[in-house]
Amino acid sequence: MSKIIFVVTSNNRLGNTGRSTGLWLEELASPYFVFRSAGLTIDIASPSGGAAPIDELSLSSPWLSEEGNRFINDRAVTAQLQNTLRLDDVDANAYDSVFFVGGLGAAWDFFPSEAARSVTETIFNNSGIVSGVCHGVLGLTNARAAGRENLLKGAAVTAVSNEEERMLGVAEIVPVLPEDLLKSLGSKYSCAAPLDRHVVVDGRIMTGQNPASAAPLARAVLVGLGCS
């Protein structure tokens, strides 16, 4: 049975704005149930461990989906989110895949992150799949690979676009724009129109652009794991 670890943000503050943030629920809930339906064993980790924050905006209309409602009403699942593993303590050798969940909070604690780098490199070097959606793709950006200064150099990838950041009004707030960072690393970045689903698979590196891309990305991971 395949085993996957989700990584979610621990950061609940939107910089110095006084506003709260966290993970984006749709980007956790939809993939979670895709993997659970396929029989995967699922763990959830975060940089700090313990309770992980959910962006309040993702809990309201029109962003809250059927899967999101299902997630927040599932006591076993929400208990996992309240008791996430500390990323530094995770034995990445135990997992076949990592899935970095998005949300604005990730812009602060996914890059640069030595814990995220270590987990990504270990799973990838063990022939596993490394994946991320939206701001979660930042969790992959610090990893290195044999023969390359960066795992994502030359790789086809996507993540939240600069245009989507501007639409959200956070382009001048977040400390790093994923699109700009990926391009600076020498990645082959692509994106769809804002809010349209877009998933890019480059071997065992799999990325999604935005919340609409989360479930399709999870299904791509399943194919890669031979679990579809």
TrEMBL record:
Keyword Protease in record: yes
BP GO annotations: methylglyoxal catabolic process to D-lactate via S-lactoyl-glutathione; proteolysis
One Pfam family of this chain: DJ-1_PfpI
Membership in a protein family: Belongs to the peptidase C56 family. HSP31-like subfamily.
Cross-referenced SUPFAM superfamilies: Class I glutamine amidotransferase-like
GO molecular function: glyoxalase III activity; peptidase activity
Domain (DJ-1/PfpI): residue spans on this chain: 27-222
GO cellular component, one term: cytoplasm
Keyword Cytoplasm: no
Gene3D superfamilies: 3.40.50.880
Keyword annotations from UniProtKB, A to Z: Hydrolase, Lyase, Protease, Stress response
CDD domains according to UniProt: GATase1_Hsp31_like
Protein name per the record: Dimethylallyltransferase
Organism of origin: Sphingosinicella microcystinivorans
